[in-house]
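Thread: inosinic acid complex, take 2
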Amino acid sequence: MTVTIVGSQLGDEGKGGVVDLYGDAADVVARYQGGDNAGHTVVHDGEKYKLSLVPSGAVRGKVGVLGNGCVVNPETLFEEIDTLHDKGLDPDVRVAERAHVILPYHRVLDGIEEDEKADLAAGTTKRGIGPTYEDKAGRRGIRVGDLLDPDVLRERLEYVVPQKRALAEEVFGADVGEAFDVEHLFETYREYGERLAEENMTVDCGTYLQDRIDAGDNVMLEGAQGTSIDIDHGIYPYVTSSNPTAGGATVGTGLGPTVVGQGEVIGIVKAYLSRVGTGPLPTELGGVEGQTPGYDPETGADTDEEELATYIRDEGGEYGTVTGRPRRVGWLDMPMLRHAARANGFTGLAINHIDVLAGLEEVKVGHSYELDGETVYTMPPTTEKWGDCEATFKSFDGWSEVDWAEVAAEGYEAIPENARTYLEYVADELEASIYAVGVGPGREETVVVENPYE
Ligand code: IMP
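Output below.
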């Protein structure tokens, strides 16, 4: 059977921990979209592994698959695999021949275009994700399978690279280097192709996964990012360029919708909101200069809200891992979650980080929005309308700090009662059961209510 893991908010919900936990019972963990814009840390046998592309299951002896819906940067892929080898592991990673390849010019263009877009910039990770998906849709992309055939690779590069070079030089006035040089790219990527072939890493993803399922294996389908930054169902244009939603699990692997639908679809929810980048956020607390639209720390700050925001930000470690920039934070947004529950058809929920909210006297959620004189319970389709929404809050009594490791060991009933009331409100509203509750950053700090593979 399959278990699909989907972020239900804006990414960074703590999917990695759940994938890691439930992945124990899986034989194969397959990613179905995105590329090295994701990021997770896996701790195994006391050793920390930071991965952005290779599925975390590969650290634990599972087969890790990058599905056809992914965009693969071979440089990152082999760097991560080599690091795992250096640490004494022998990861089994397979890559779909239909997956698209991120080339150096994609990264360069991602940076240039973000700078040009100013207010419309999505604040991308600059890994070339968007430009690679653009080329996929424009039918000028290079696929993993093309790296295996030098004639095809050369033909594709000779067609596409002059266009990219002209775009960079003539439209954006940029200086271009070897990232736009056909010969250099051909040699480098042909070698990647040779390595993929030598190590027998490429697969016809749908066939491979279906064969494993037919043989009785458990397959986990791992979404990256989250529903509200899905290119179709998210807050366009502040989105990533793929489909983190559950539909992406079928087109991004080649498994039929009925196969994925017969399995479980677990929505990962963070108990509050955090966001990197600009655009509206109706349940935001306080603001962050340069990210919250119209925010002026001199005049715009409500001291109580700012204090709350700082508390949650500090407790949750909501600072950029690379830049150290504070992330925007806010209360849970139920219309956002109702939208996610419908778009993904969640069968279960994993709610993370309830420990971060411990110690607050009152915990609020945005229960609904007021929009143009009406009460609405789900997200409007345009980001501008979402920006017009005023959240109507519901209040819950807070819960105190407890020994969360003990709670995790004892089980659901050991969670403080007020926190359980909060969790059950969310589950009732989304009409999905609670499968797991995250009470701390470690994998063992999770209360497991249900194991989807059992
Ligand atoms: P891209 O995926 O690099 O094109 O970035 C597009 C948008 O998605 C930006 O707002 C990024 O901050 C966001 N994004 C991409 N990956 C992640 C993630 O793993 N977590 C949270 N946000 C992400």
